[in-house]
Design goal:
By secondary structure, the protein is of the alpha+beta class. The chain has a single domain, classed as 2-Layer Sandwich (Chloramphenicol Acetyltransferase). The chain is 36% helix and 25% strand. Strands 1, 4, 7, 8, 9, 10 and 11 form a 7-stranded mixed sheet that branches. The protein has a two-stranded antiparallel sheet with strand order 2-3. Helix 3 packs across helix 4 and helix 3 crosses helix 5. The termini are far apart.
């Protein structure tokens, strides 16, 4: 992992763009449905499933963020294998959620728990740690307010989540207190230009602030959580 991080710094044209997301709606959904969700699926409703869903939709809109350079070729993916950074006894590891774009919220949460447990018990296989197309890392669990994550090569981008902190925000001419999170997207400028990187992060922000955009049909929130 250390060698790969150094290689990423030395071989990519890495830049980072920042934004912030108002977590009010997601926190309200979790508070309202957490017990029903756990009863229905046997797993807690965390933030990772929301972020993974939003990222998968945004990757489909901006395929360069989900691509990588292989020699002289630029390789695109029509699927999203999302690497998630988790702590293990010997340091940070990045197991992969395969085909996350086709998974439900509950399936994502269950996979996160499974991979995190394996990482803690040092039972991850090499196959479970290779082949991701995009990475999500959450420094907020350790208290980080803002950071610049390093690309997990050969991927072209990584999304950094951070600590949720209540801050005064100016909304419609009024100052209100909102739970805010800084987001950071580090990307390889050889593959992704500034417009794509900023647009991708803004799209993720929009979906997180309006979770009903993640699915449509009947009651959008209940459809998203697969509960009645």
């Amino acid at each position: 992992m250390s060698r790969r991080l150094v290689e990423a710094k030395n071989t990519t044209a890495m830049l980072t763009t920042f934004n912030e997301v108002d977590m009010t709606e997601i926190m309200a959904i979790r508070a309202k449905y957490k017990e029903t969700f756990k009863t229905a699926h046997g797993v807690n409703l965390g933030f990772m499933s929301f972020f993974t869903k939003a990222v998968c939709f945004a990757l489909a809109e901006f395929p360069a963020v989900n691509a990588y350079i292989d020699g002289e070729e630029l390789v695109y993916h029509d699927y999203a294998d999302i690497s998630i950074a988790v702590s293990a006894p010997k340091g940070l590891v990045v197991p992969v959620i395969r085909n996350a774009e086709s998974m439900s919220m509950a399936e994502i949460e269950k996979k996160v728990v499974e991979l995190a447990t394996k990482a803690r018990d040092s039972k991850l296989t090499m196959d479970e740690m290779t082949g991701g197309t995009f990475t999500i890392t959450n420094g907020g669990v350790f208290g980080s307010l803002m950071s610049t994550p390093i690309i997990n090569i050969p991927q072209s981008a990584i999304l950094g989540m951070h600590k949720i902190r209540e801050r005064p925000m100016a909304i419609n001419g009024q100052v209100v207190i909102r739970p805010m999170m800084y987001l950071a997207l580090s990307y390889d400028h050889r593959i992704i230009d500034g417009r794509e990187s900023v647009s991708f992060l803004v799209r993720v922000k929009e979906m997180l602030e309006n979770p009903e955009q993640l699915l449509f049909g009947r009651d959008p929130v209940k459809t998203l959580l697969n509960i009645k």
